[in-house]
Amino acid sequence: MLKRIAALLMATSLVLLLAGCSGKTAGNQQTSSTGQPQKKIIKVGIGLNEKSPQYKGLEKFKEMVEKGSNGRFEVQLYANSQLGDDVKMMEALRMGTQEMTCPSTAPIAGLSKKFMVFDLPFLFPNEKVADQVLDGPVGQKILDSLTDKGIIGLAYWENGFRQLTNNKREVKTPADLKGLKIRTMENPVHLATFRALGANPTPMPFGELFTAMQQGTIDGQENPLTTIYLQKFYEVQKYVSLTNHFYSPFVFMISKKFWDGLSKEDQELIKKAAKEAGAFQRQYNREQMKQMADNLRKAGMVVTELTPEQMEEFRKATEGVYKQFENEIGKDLIEEVKAEIAKYNK
Predict the structure, then answer these.
(1) What is the chain's percent helix, strand, coil content, to nearest 5?
(2) According to the UniProt entry, where is the signal peptide (predicted)?
(3) Given 9, 38, 210, 225, which is the most exposed site by the fewest CB atoms within 10 A?
């Protein structure tokens, strides 16, 4: 009997010892070796590099959250598609294996077709109007459509007006695009737009783009000037046309599984930081954009600025895209966004 009691005491002691070594308290809270609560980790992944305005915005977000939480959060930043492409990272948010990401609206259409409205060609006339619409009630309504997909949309940041590059010829009219293989995101509105312009759109993950252009697998691509310059596309592309064919927002989003485990105070902290860092990122992006055309000229690219008449030719060539996607996006939503744009574009 004494041997049994001794064995039971030893087993109990071992369990208690292992529990202590595991760094968990009775409330199942993670603790450090000093007995202090461990920092909550927020992993944020993007496709662009560390020099991009998007990454600079993430650095601002990291600073605000870590300072505002007195170090209770640690924000880890991953650039260059280290955590996967936009689609993979959004899926990781839904599963709860990654906390945050900030994709363009185009790949989000796979989760909520409402975001497709922002991919319609030549929708926004300028950045100021885009800000007012995105930060208003219709923008919030579209963000809210992610909630039942396991993602919380926090704020709109800016990718910017997208421009066209290629390595074959100068593009001034839709006719110049005929037959060119242009990489696009895997988004039906983008694909339809470039087909309407006479190109051969080719969806491809961003991480594969540079090599594909270098090897001649595709002829060109479309992205904001900051991305074109900072990703050094000028090394493998000769021509850039300032078409402004899409205005591309980023959507700063967080995993609902992670979000639901936060206190109301921490949710407010993160949401406020997302919006304020987004305002900083937009301004930084626009300042960078002003010098990018000259930077690309100096890097050896032929930069083509279109006349109003040439821009109108592009716009008219893509008018049918709106009608084509009325049923998927919702005619009422398209009209609501257009009405908001008209209200602010005065």
Answers:
(1) 50, 20, 30
(2) 1-26
(3) 9
Q: pTM of this prediction?
A: 0.83
Q: What are phi and psi of 321, to 5 degrees?
A: -65, -35
Give the single-character DSSP code of 90.
H
| Beta-ladder partners of 221 | 165, 183
Expressed as residue numbers, the domain containing 182 is 40-345
- What are the DSSP calls for 258-321, one per residue? HHHTS-HHHHHHHHHHHHHHHHHHHHHHHHHHHHHHHHHHHTT-EEEEPPHHHHHHHHHHTTHH
Query: pLDDT digits over 98-131, tens only?
Result: 999 999 998 898 899 999 999 999 999 999 999 9
pLDDT at 16: 42
The reply to whether 144 falls in a domain is yes
| Strand-pair partners of 43 | 76
Residue 27 lies in a domain: no
Gap between the Cα atoms of 99 and 43, Å rounded:
5
Residue 239: partners with Cβ closer than 8 Å, 6 or more residues away: 165, 166, 167, 168, 169, 170, 171, 220, 301, 302, 304
> Residue 59: inside a domain, yes or no?
yes
Question: Number of folded domains in the chain?
Answer: 1
- Please say whether the beta carbons of 110 and 127 come within 8 A: no
Which pLDDT tens digit goes with each residue over 148-195? 999 999 999 999 999 999 999 999 999 999 999 999 988 899 999 999
Judged by DSSP in three states, 183 sits in strand
How far does Cα 301 stand from its chain's mean position? 27
Residue 26 — very low, low, confident or very high, per pLDDT cuts 50/70/90? very low
**Confidence band for 81, pLDDT divided at 50, 70 and 90:** very high
- Is residue 30 scored above 60 in pLDDT? no
The residues pairing with 203 across neighbouring beta strands, listed in sequence order, are: 184
- How far is it, in rounded angstroms, from Cα 82 to Cα 109? 22
Amino acid at residue number 162? R
**Structural domain contains residue 34:** no
- Kindly state the tokens that stand for 1: 């009997």
Q: What are phi and psi of 44, to 5 degrees?
A: -120, 120
- The CATH number for 56's domain is 3.40.190.170
